[in-house]
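We now fix the convention by which a protein and its fold are recorded. The integers have meaning only within a learned vocabulary of local backbone shapes. A record is reproduced here so that you can trace the correspondence yourselves:
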Amino acid sequence: MDGDFSFMDFDLFEVARNECFSVLNIALDNLDIYNFSVDTQDQRNGNTLLHYAALSGNEETTKKLLSLSAYANILNEKGETSLHLACLKGHMNVAKLLLGHKAKLNAVDFCGDTPLFKSVQGGNKLLTKFLIGQHAVVNNANKVNEKLIHVAVKFDDRELVQMLLDADEDPNRASNTGHTPVQLATLHGNDEILKLLIEKKADLTVRDHLKRTLLHLAAKEDHPDICRRLISEGIDVNAQDENGSTALHLAAEFNATSVVKLLLESQADINKSDLDDYAPLHVAAGNRRGLKVLEILLKSNPKLDVKTVHGDVPLHVAAAVGHTRAFVSLYSKKYINCLNNSSLSPLQIAEENGHIPVMQLIEQLDRNNLPPRIPVFKELRLSKRRSMIP
């Protein structure tokens, strides 16, 4: 009958993908009724049944497949062997089974990663120790020129970083992405690893492709502990990137309140302007999520009349983005009618951008308007930030 059940109706790969290994094991015990080789590869991704068993950490199925002479070194469409997948997921016992059946310890996938790289990426510290004890190569570089130290830093394996540094691994080697280990430690907020790298004379003056210092990176990612360590090492708190932004600009842009406080306590220049003459206060005024940052900056008495290349004061910026709470915090009778280089006041900027609540607020705050000031025009240059005019 058509409704009769038959093992022949099973797609063994679908069974494996769904991790129904008890069913798969029954099928493997009756493999002679299938026209199926255990080394057949799934058309979806190139995986064999052994890949799926290794990925899931199923020891019973792994043993059964190996007893059926499954080949441990077949590559899937990413160039990964079963050992790569077992190591990525931290399946120690499966990895041992595969190695006992001649799986290649230092096989390289199409990204250049070995099983050891995969183990570190998976955060599998015990398995990583085991692989190194089996003499896995530790000085390989993958296709983006990352060495094991880069991967260990990214995935917070402090013990492995220490071991590699003790073996004279270069703490200043850059990958093809341009990142050195110390930049990766900074980006990922790994303070203890950063300390290790500093002890090994890592270069703290390194900059990325945007000319951002380590302090810029830490500020952008809101890592106050990293910022504190870098400042204690003497990094320049007012260094500028290719756009002229300081770490304080980035902390204000990305709403890193703790970092803003720390930078100000460390004598960061609150009025330092970037290439478009934006001060950190402009940046905070335009950040609708950054009211707390704005309030912190205002406590340090910044200049309220500092102007961008377009002649905008922070009030113009708050009006342009419709940030009513920032506008209240920045409000000063002295600057409410200040005109930018396009002869626009904050009220006109709010009107141009359709921010009715700000318009109503300005009218309430400025019932006794003073005559508009005569604008001072200056030659404009190309700006990396947008004008307040829509």
Summary: Confidence is low (pLDDT under 50) at residues 1-5, 370-384, 386-390. The chain is about 45% helix and 0% strand. Residues 356-365 form the longest helix (10 residues). The CA atoms of residues 240 and 246 lie 5 Å apart.
